[in-house]
């Protein structure tokens, strides 16, 4: 059975949980004790030398990085629906995977680190970056329901978590009505699952790297 090494409050792990659920795939969640630094233990580093969650195991395959995992799951289990192989379509979807790993991670996800995990980051810069990408997203979604191909793809799944979690980084979505409408559409997808809301700041992980 598919195993996901997971930390409940991580948006990158949530991305994978959401994809597994949208695809209706049975899986086992293996919680990683992030606060105690279990992701830096020798055992875990054998799965992912970067010491980061999520990590997915499917039979003999061990794969890390939430974007890479979405690609794997979509191609392995999702037929053409979530990631088509037509070069033009694939390119269109993949550009959002890069955006989520860069602009969204360094803006929205980083701002959330300050409030939820009490980490020292440049909050102003992160919030500026967050507003920049939200503006781009909002304009892009003005004339479409989904990020690409007129249907939900892994582009939507990849970008959704940290956009949805923006308020936890002190960023209001009020000025971005098309983004809010897109969030509502994603919530209505068959198999949708949510992420627990972090209402309090939790202790910083004992062992931390660049990201959370
Ligand atoms: N590019 C990776 C980033 C993964 C990542 O940063 N995971 C965080 C949790 S959300 C983590 O494990 N951070 C610990 C560290 O960087 O040491 C992905 O998309 O999965």
TrEMBL record:
A Pfam family cross-referenced in the UniProt record is: GST_N
Question: Locate the GST C-terminal domain: which residues?
Answer: 86-209
Record-annotated GST N-terminal domain positions: 1-81
UniProt keyword annotation of Iron-sulfur present = no
- A single Gene Ontology molecular function, please? transferase activity
Record flagged with keyword Cell inner membrane: no
Q: Tell me the InterPro entries matching this sequence.
A: Glutathione-S-Trfase_C-like, Glutathione-S-Trfase_C_sf, Glutathione_S-Trfase, Glutathione_S-Trfase_N, GST_C, Thioredoxin-like_sf
Entry keyword set: Transferase
Q: Which CDD domains match?
A: GST_C_7 (cd03206), GST_N_4 (cd03056)
Give the domain of life.
Bacteria
Give the family, as the similarity comment puts it: Belongs to the GST superfamily.
Name the record gives this protein: Glutathione S-transferase
In the record, what lineage is assigned to the organism producing the protein? Answer: Bacteria, Bacillati, Cyanobacteriota, Cyanophyceae, Nostocales
């Amino acid at each position: 059975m598919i195993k996901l090494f997971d930390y409940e409050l991580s948006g990158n792990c949530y991305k994978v949980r959401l994809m597994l659920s949208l695809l209706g795939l049975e899986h086992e969640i293996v919680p990683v004790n992030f606060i105690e630094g279990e992701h830096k233990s020798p055992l875990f580093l054998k799965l992912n030398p970067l010491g980061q969650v999520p990590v997915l195991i499917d039979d003999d395959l061990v794969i890390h990085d939430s974007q890479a995992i979405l690609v794997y799951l979509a191609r392995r289990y999702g037929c053409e629906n979530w990631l088509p192989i037509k070069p033009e379509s694939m390119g269109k979807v993949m550009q959002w995977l890069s955006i989520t790993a860069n602009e969204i991670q360094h803006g929205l996800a980083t701002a959330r680190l300050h409030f939820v995990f009490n980490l020292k980051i440049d909050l102003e810069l992160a919030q500026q970056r967050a507003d920049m990408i939200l503006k781009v997203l909002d304009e892009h979604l003005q004339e479409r329901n989904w990020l690409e191909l007129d249907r939900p793809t892994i582009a939507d799944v990849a970008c959704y978590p940290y956009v949805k979690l923006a308020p936890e980084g002190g960023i209001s979505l009020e000025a971005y009505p098309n983004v809010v409408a897109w969030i509502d559409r994603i919530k209505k997808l068959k198999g949708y699952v949510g992420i627990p809301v972090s209402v309090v700041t939790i202790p910083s992980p004992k062992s931390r790297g660049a990201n959370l």
